[in-house]
């Protein structure tokens, strides 16, 4: 196969991450975060070709449940059918192009609000008013256009390239690695979700996740009460970052994975609750705005209320601190677009190393260069 997604992942697999050497590395230019032209190119060469997580089984647990997510200007709807299967579609009516669903909800069928064309959960056209006797109206040819969807430990990943290689081809071994740690997706329930507006480019949000260099100056509650920043270990390979950090309680080691290009998931230590599964998404909305979506899930025996209470506290402390700090970075880069970021790569001092950001930048550069 020679689809755009095949070409992308073939190129990305050859990008190495130096998890050993201490060095000063040049990062992306400030203009790479402030140019609408650059974001449009990233939309074409990254987000139209990569596996992007839009949610989790637990977000749409019942038949007829659906969720809508925007991947830049591409709206995708995922819906659970009566047989329990989940399908994804371009959220675009085949008649005149209106979206057929918004947000999240439950519907016996998906009905376009413009002219009431109605679709079953498998995307097939159920009813199109006033088309009886109209030549060439074949319902079998006018269903919603499908989007590739794969479930990985319950997470719903989509790829806008219909001929993309499978998730496992793109991330060999990752599914089994995640299954070692993630709670069974069939037992998980959504406890809380917190979409945070970042007035910053999506790459700034990813990079802020990718290091704990800022944790001491920015996240006092987190470092004093939850994690031991001196234990921080971060590495990357095969399009995946792996973060391991001990907790102030020695039994609560935090494990995080960041999966190219904009999804993070892992186990977070919550006092009084234990290790809680959380998925973070860094969705680009415009050149200087992104949505940093936290979704927290409860496993059997865990208190949904306790998780919700902690998640709200997290949103008001660490989450709000991150939102403020990335906004400041965006302001600075917008005022000096010709400068280049500088990255401190010092893997033996995990808490202060930005080497996985250097790797992320190399992946971005490679993706942009891959036609």
Brief description of this entry?
The protein has 371 residues and is of the alpha+beta class. It has helices at 4-12, 31-34, 36-47, 167-170, 174-179, 202-209, 215-218, 220-225, 304-335, 355-369; strands at 23-29, 52-56, 65-71, 74-80, 86-90, 104-106, 110-111, 118-119, 125-127, 146-152, 155-159, 189-198, 233-237, 240-245, 254-259, 263-270, 274-286, 289-298, 340-345. The strands form four sheets. It has a seven-stranded antiparallel beta sheet with strand order 2-11-10-5-4-3-6, with no helix packed on it.
Topology at a glance:
Layout: H1 4-12, E1 23-29, H2 31-34, H3 36-47, E2 52-56, E3 65-71, E4 74-80, E5 86-90, E6 104-106, E7 110-111, E8 118-119, E9 125-127, E10 146-152, E11 155-159, H4 167-170, H5 174-179, E12 189-198, H6 202-209, H7 215-218, H8 220-225, E13 233-237, E14 240-245, E15 254-259, E16 263-270, E17 274-286, E18 289-298, H9 304-335, E19 340-345, H10 355-369
Helix pairs in contact: 3-10
Write up this protein.
The chain is α+β, with helices and mostly antiparallel strands. It has two domains: 4-50 and 174-369, Naphthalene 1,2-dioxygenase Alpha Subunit, Chain A, domain 1 (Alpha-Beta Complex), CATH 3.90.380.10; 52-163, Rieske Iron-sulfur Protein. It has ten helices and 19 strands. It has helices at 4-12, 31-34, 36-47, 167-170, 174-179, 202-209, 215-218, 220-225, 304-335, 355-369, and strands at 23-29, 52-56, 65-71, 74-80, 86-90, 104-106, 110-111, 118-119, 125-127, 146-152, 155-159, 189-198, 233-237, 240-245, 254-259, 263-270, 274-286, 289-298, 340-345. The strands form four sheets. The chain has a seven-stranded antiparallel β-sheet, with no helix packed on it. The protein has a seven-stranded antiparallel β-sheet with strand order 12-18-17-16-15-14-13. Strands 7-8-9 form a three-stranded antiparallel β-sheet, with no helix packed on it. Helix 3 packs across helix 10 (355-369). The longest helix is centred in the C-terminal third of the chain and has 32 residues, at 304-335. The chain is globular. It starts with a helix and ends with a helix. The model has no long low-confidence stretch (mean pLDDT 95).
